[in-house]
Amino acid sequence: MGIKAFLKVRVFIPLALSFLMIIINPEKLRDSFRRVIIPIELLGGKIRGAPFHFNEAVKDNIRLTKEKEELKKEISLLLHKYAKTDEIIKENKRLRNILSYKEKTGFNLIIANTLGFSSDAISSTIIIDKGLSDGIKKGSSVVCLFKEREVFIGRVIDVFSQSSLVLLATDPLFSIPARLDVTREKGLLVGQKGKMELKFIENRIPVMLKEPVITVQDELTPQGILIGYVERVSSKKSGLFKKVFVRPAVSFSSLEEVLVFVP
């Protein structure tokens, strides 16, 4: 047998054996075929379906973004409504407290709203929306309610038809008789820049930090209204009186409603 004939036989024999195996066991061939063909089909299906799934994902993303924006708007609206409701509740509570205080005191009181606050190197004042037409008089004492307690804040120094100017207790030109709540020692309260000083308290008188300072009754002011608290005490070795510094009981810049005592 020559070399060429031998090579033909070597090629023919495997082919013949393979053909024989197909005839004898065709199921094995189908399994092999499935293992090769099916993954290719699945891959092709995924590739064909990819644009569809991508478009759906984009649509879902757009829809979720719109829903998120709508929810933000709804939450913002609800917060706004809640804030307005809460403010109304607080305002009603303040007005109820003022009316209750007005009923129990023996003085005639006028409720007024603050229109402006001024505090500079020259003066400390507020403007209120009640004036001559409402019965406001010069010298009338002005208080507010803070934590359901009345607090003295100043006196009317000028009156107009529909408004009045109130000089605050922290103004350097302000002064009023006052006393220490614990020792009952009387002095003269004068305004300083943003604070006050209770003058003419003798060195022998014990003064406690945070001791309340209250009003002394006169024609337009009831007795015992809180003005402020002792913040610092300075005693001199020489002299009869100590320095008693007082901080206001409220922040005058945050006042909304006030009460004016009128004859």
Overview of this structure, please?
The chain is α+β, with helices and mostly antiparallel strands and 263 residues long. The chain has helices spanning 3-24, 26-104; strands spanning 108-119, 124-128, 141-146, 149-159, 164-168, 175-180, 186-191, 196-202, 212-215, 226-234, 241-248, 257-262. Helix content is 38%, strand content 32%. The chain has a six-stranded antiparallel beta barrel. A six-stranded antiparallel β-barrel has the order 6-7-8-11-10-9. A hairpin with a 4-residue loop joins strand 7 (186-191) and strand 8 (196-202). 21% of the residues are buried. The model is unreliable at 3-11 (pLDDT under 50).
Radius of gyration: 45 Å
Overall pLDDT confidence: 78
Distance between the termini: 145 Å
Helix content: 25-40%
Low-pLDDT runs of 5+ residues are: 3-11
Beta fraction? 25-35%
Counting DSSP E segments of at least 2 residues, the number of strands comes to 12
Main sheet attributes: strand count, strand direction, barrel closure: 6 strands, antiparallel, barrel
Helix and strand run: HHEEEEEEEEEEEE
Coarse structural class? alpha+beta
